[in-house]
Specification:
single chain, alpha/beta, Protein-Tyrosine Phosphatase, Chain A, 5-stranded parallel β-sheet, two-stranded antiparallel ribbon
């Protein structure tokens, strides 16, 4: 990954169509572990899907981010993009992050993704 951009993607089925590099977590547990390994490094872009593997969702990660912000130690992040196809949950997650002070927005650009299993 380019040293100039640290991008984290939390999604169980999609990757970037254009091949941009990202650290990927497919579950909320993986996402929380990944953020711990980054040890406070500035994350340029954090991309969040809501519905993950099985019954898992991104909510445990969102709760963690909100708790950090409430404790006065928010994740250092340039922008959070909520790209979930689950419209209601995506809007709710985005609203929670914005209310906690994060630079978060909904991303509706469907053409930027491809499924992992596609060549």
């Amino acid at each position: 990954m380019s040293a100039s951009v640290l991008r984290v993607l939390v999604d169980d089925v999609r990757v970037f169509r254009d091949g941009r590099e990202a650290l990927v977590a497919q579950t909320s547990t993986e996402a929380l572990a990944l953020l711990r390994t980054l040890d406070g490094r500035f994350v340029d872009e954090l991309w969040l899907d809501h519905d993950l593997v099985g019954d898992d969702t991104v909510q445990p990660l969102v709760d963690h981010l909100v708790a950090r912000a409430s404790a006065g130690a928010p994740l250092p992040v340039g922008r959070i993009y909520v790209h979930s196809a689950n419209v209601r949950a995506g809007h709710r997650v985005n609203a929670e992050l914005v209310a906690a002070g994060y630079p978060s927005r909904r991303s509706f650009v469907a053409g930027m993704w491809r499924h992992r299993w596609m060549a």
